[in-house]
Amino acid sequence: MLTLTVLQRQNLKARAHPLKPTVMIGSAGLTPAVLGEISCALKSHELIKIRVMNEDRKTRMDISGQICTQLNAVAVQHIGKILVIYQPQEDVPEKTPARPKGRPLSKKQLGSR
C-alpha cells in the first residue's frame, strides 16, 4: 500500500474538493464488478470520490482498506459516507504534437487562429 506525506495529502484534498462521487457502493457492498469500476475510474482520473451507502463507520473503513490493498491505492480522506482514493498513474511520456511539414503560415492564416 502507498503512503503519502502531509503536504501531498493536503494537495490531493484540495484537488478532490470540487469532484463529484464517480462510484457508489450500495447495499451489496464491494463486489468484483464495483471493484472493476473503481479500478477503471482510477486509471482514467487518478483521484476519485466514492460514496458508500452504509451507515456503519467501521464497514466504510473496511471497504476503504480493501480498495486500497487490492488496487494498490491510498485513502486520502474519509468524511462521512465519502471516500477519496488516489492511485498514481504510471509515467506515460507525453507526445509532442507533430508540426505539419511545408511552408510556414502567412500573417492572414495566423490572424484567423
Structural class: alpha+beta
Describe the oligomeric state of these chains in a short phrase. Answer: single chain
- Poorly predicted runs of 5 or more residues: none
Top CATH class: Alpha Beta
The share of residues in helices is 25-40%
Q: Would you report the number of β strands?
A: 4
Number of domains: 1
Distance linking N and C termini? 48 Å
The biggest beta sheet reads: 4 strands, mixed
CATH fourth-tier homologous superfamily: YhbY-like
Approximately what portion of the residues adopt beta-strand conformation? 15-25%
The main sheet orders its strands as 1-2-4-3
Per CATH, which architecture?
A: 2-Layer Sandwich
Protein architecture, described:
The chain has four helices and four strands, in the order αβαβαββα. The chain has 113 residues and is α+β, with helices and mostly antiparallel strands. Strands 1-2-4-3 form a four-stranded mixed β-sheet, with helices on both faces. Helix 2 links the parallel strand 1 and strand 2 (47-52).
List key phrases describing it:
4 strands, 113 residues, alpha+beta
Furnish the topology, listing elements before pairings.
Blueprint: H1 6-16, E1 23-25, H2 32-45, E2 47-52, H3 57-71, E3 74-79, E4 82-86, H4 107-111
Parallel strand pairs: 1-2
Antiparallel strand pairs: 2-4, 3-4
Short structural description:
The protein has four helices and four strands; from the N terminus they run H-E-H-E-H-E-E-H. With 113 residues, the chain is of the alpha+beta class. It has a single domain, classed as 2-Layer Sandwich (Translation Initiation Factor IF3).
